[in-house]
Specification:
9% of the residues lie in helices and 41% in strands. It contains three helices and 21 strands. Strands 12, 13, 14, 15, 16, 17, 18, 19, 20 and 21 form a ten-stranded antiparallel sheet that branches. The protein has an eight-stranded antiparallel β-barrel with strand order 3-4-5-6-7-8-9-11. The protein has 261 residues and is mostly beta strands. It has two domains: 141 residues, Lipocalin, CATH 2.40.128.640; 107 residues, Lipocalin (Beta Barrel), CATH 2.40.128. Keywords: Signal, Stress response. This is Heat shock protein HslJ. InterPro entries: Cu-R_lipoprotein_NlpE, DUF306_Meta_HslJ, HslJ-like_sf, Hsp_HslJ-like.
Length: 261
Amino acid sequence: MKIGRLAMAALPLLLAGGGCAPVATQAGGADAAPDPAHSSRNALDWAGTYKGVLPCADCEGIETIVTLGGDGAYSTRSRYLGKGDGNSFSTQGRFTWDDRGGSILLSGDQPARYLVGENRLIRLAQDGSRITGALADHYVLVKMDESITEKYWKLVELHGKPVPALDREPHFILSAQDNRISGYAGCNGFGGSYTLDEKTSRIRFGQMASTMMACDKGMDVEQGFHDVLRQADNYSLNGDSMTLNRGRMAPLARFEAVYLQ
């Protein structure tokens, strides 16, 4: 059963304005105040990226990614499942903690509250109360592994320009076991070695081996892709989005993580 159908059966209370906002029922009263010295803010490693699918009144669910920075900045990305293209939205801003250090408020036109737990965020109603009902377990975002290895990275931008649609999408995967990279550049498959220091976000790629096919389209993307791998010496990670960079110059290329359904 789709999440959206379950949501329509529950008593709807919109967490934020808009027809596609998450639907919820809420419990009365807030949780007991914890000891401030052992609050989520002080005791947990909460900075990072969280992902989940929130219930939606008129769609299959809202795929939600929230990134919390240690400096109080946040970014979010939301995608309304089953709504087709053009239903993805991004926000960024600052978040604040409540007096107890247990929950946060994401500022903005549609502010959102989350209870901060061990490796998870729990969406709250606008008054800060816990959500109950049949869909309560779906209001949870789980902290993501922030390693860039063992993930399928799809190329979406080269030098700030969108990558055109090809018969097969350019991508790469970094194997942590043997420090090897494998992928597809737009026409040919390729492979090689890499060195990575995730503490400093430094990465360098070695000499690449590639098949030698000629294609009617995709060759310019392939050339640009290989140029990026030759030049890149660091990366920036923001949830499911990663850029390869050279020094402090503008990003060379942007990639998005793709997960098998």
